[in-house]
Amino acid sequence: MLIEVMWGLRCLVASSLGYTPFEIAFKQVPLHEFSSRDLVFSAEDDKEQYCGEVVDALLATWSRQRLSVVDQLKVKDDKMAQEYEKKVKHAAYVFEEGDQVYMKQRRRGKLLPKALGPYTFMKYKGVANKAAVVMNSKGRLIDVSVT
C-alpha cells in the first residue's frame, strides 16, 4: 500500500507549477505501474501479443506526452529568462584601459564630496566584470567593485 501512496504523490500535479514532481525532476511523464498479476491469459501467444500491443500504445502515448511536456518546459524556461533579463541591471558603459573614472563616496556626511577621483581605469577582474583595478594619481593600484 505504501508503494501506491508514494506513486500517487509523485504523480500528483502541483497546482502552482502545473507539473508533477516526477516531470520536474526527470522532464518526462512518469510511467504508470504495470502489474502482470492483473492479467490472466489462456496461452503464451495471447500474452505476448497483448503485451506487445500495450507496450506499443504506451510508448506512443508517452513519447507524445513527453514531447508536450518538454515543449512546455522550454516555454517556461524562456519566460523565466526574459523575466530575469528585465530585472538584471546591465552596465550602461564598458570601461576601457586609460578611461578616467570616479568612485562613489562610501562615507556619509554633508560636507564630504559624493565622488572620489579621478582614477585611471586599468582592467576588469574576473569573467562577469563585477570588479576592476583602478590607479590613483599617485600610481597606487586599487581593487574596486563595479556597479
List the helices and strands and how they pair.
Elements: H1 2-10, H2 21-26, H3 44-87, E1 100-104, E2 115-125, E3 131-135, E4 141-145
Antiparallel strand pairs: 1-2, 2-3, 3-4
Question: What report would you give on this structure?
Answer:
This protein is of the alpha+beta class and 147 residues long. It folds into two domains: 2-87, no CATH class; 100-145. Helix content is 40%, strand content 18%. It is elongated and about 85 Å long. The two termini are 57 Å apart.
Spatial ordering of strands, largest sheet: 1-2-3-4
- Specify the helix fraction band: 40-55%
Counted up, domains total 2
Give the DSSP E fraction (strand runs of 2 or more residues). 15-25%
Name a few traits of the molecule:
single chain, 147 residues, alpha+beta, 4-stranded antiparallel β-sheet, 3 helices, elongated
Compact description:
This protein has helices spanning 2-10, 21-26, 44-87; strands at 100-104, 115-125, 131-135, 141-145. The protein has 147 residues and is an alpha+beta fold. It has a 4-stranded antiparallel sheet, with no helix packed on it.
